[in-house]
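Before relying on records like the one below, remember that each one covers exactly one chain. Contacts with other chains, cofactors or solvent are not represented anywhere in the record.
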Amino acid sequence: MNHDVDVLIIGAGVIGITTAHYLLDEGRNPVVIDKGDVCAGASYGNAGLIVPSHAIPLAVPGVTRQGLKWLLNPDSPFYIKPRPDPDLIRWLWQFQKVANQAAMDRVIPTLLSLGRASMALYEEFAQDPSLDFSFEKAGGLYLYASRTGLDGAVAESRHLATLGVASAIWDTAEVNRRMPAAKPGMAGGVYYPADGHIVPNRFVTSLAQKVRDRGGAVQGDTEVLGIKVVGRKVMEVQTTRGIFRPKQVVLATGAWSAKLAAPLGLRLPVQPAKGYSITIQRPDDFPELHMHLGESKIAVTPMAEHLRFAGTLEMAGLDLSINQRRVDAIRRGVTDFLNVDPHRGLVEIWRGLRPLSPDTLPIIGPSPKQDNLILCTGHGMLGISQGPISGKLAAQMVAGVKPDLDPAPLRLERFG
């Protein structure tokens, strides 16, 4: 069956669904397709964090040296599986190029703008009674067991303070008072009051239903088999459910974006970064405050009746297998910091692939080769945090209206 559509959005995660929502605001008629179901990928089991404070990119000075140590340790928070992959080698070269102070200083203001804009949009969504996603803006605590770790976090917070990011330093006594689940003897933490969290799958699925209710279409089990381009225009998208003939296309397929874009002559520097989460029944006395366990690089998020531990960054290609060593490392990291049993009341062990760009910024903007294709991918671990503003920017680009934020730092062309 052939389908003539106005705007075809490929990908039904947080980016694709928010794009559809904002396209409806612009008077357009979006159709969202996905090879799986709504929110079946990285948008499902992540930490659910909305973190405007998280504005320091992964590529910081010295990270390459640290990365060599991590490379040799499969239990490390950031593990790169050695393999002869030209795309990975190219990505690592680009990552090394931006791991310097000048590049970091260029990226931070854009990350801050994206985070703050998304938080404002989440606050708007939270006022909509048709959306139920347990939005909480109770702040977030970066907790450290060592003085060295805490000192580094304090220095980072002072740098962010010069850019208007509020924070507070908690000593050991304040951590014990405000976070009774923390083990005694923690060095302290840095608290960012403007951060928040949600239940991510509830947000995406409830917004997808709202898109349907407003007249948009959301269709799962529709895998892209090929894309036909004539000149500078996408003419057809061939799928397992027929051929779509769109006026415009938005590519929002996360970790699979580079694979889909390659036949179009586009080289997207996006690597799949596998993350894991463990969800348990929430202990009765666990407060409404998410945490980052500093040295272990684990996020701890209360999600209504559940508590989720999320972490690790494993670059192993499009591999969705579960590495039990990574799961065990998360559990050990939790018990190093908290008096919480990560085995008790187990709800789910999950893994998913996040789309990671070399400079931590997403890729949002028109394709340099196709006039009717918008790219919206590469959000790494910040897909939920940056989801609403990313979808809104993509929708504004499709509609030809002035974007809310300057899109220049987000364009694919920045990688050359």
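The longest strand covers residues 271-281.
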